[in-house]
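Write out the bound-state structure for zinc ion.
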Amino acid sequence: MDTERTTLAHRPLTRADRCDRCSAAAQARAVLPHGELLFCGHHLRAHRAPLLAAGAVLDGPAA
Ligand SMILES: [Zn+2]
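---
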C-alpha cells in the first residue's frame, strides 16, 4: 500500500467534514499555505474570490 503519499489535502471529503463557517456538510476544501479550510457550497461561493486571491487551492465536489 502506498499510504505515505496520501496527505490530508488529498483525503476525500466525508459527511463528517463540516463547513468552517456554518457547520453544514463540507462540499469543498481550500488548501492555503498555513492550513486548510472547509466550506459548504454556499460559503465556497461567498469566499471563492478572496481565497483564490490568497493563493488557495480549491478541491472537492463543489470546488
Ligand atoms: Zn457554510
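---
The chain has a mean pLDDT of 88.
The first strand starts at residue 28 and ends at 32.
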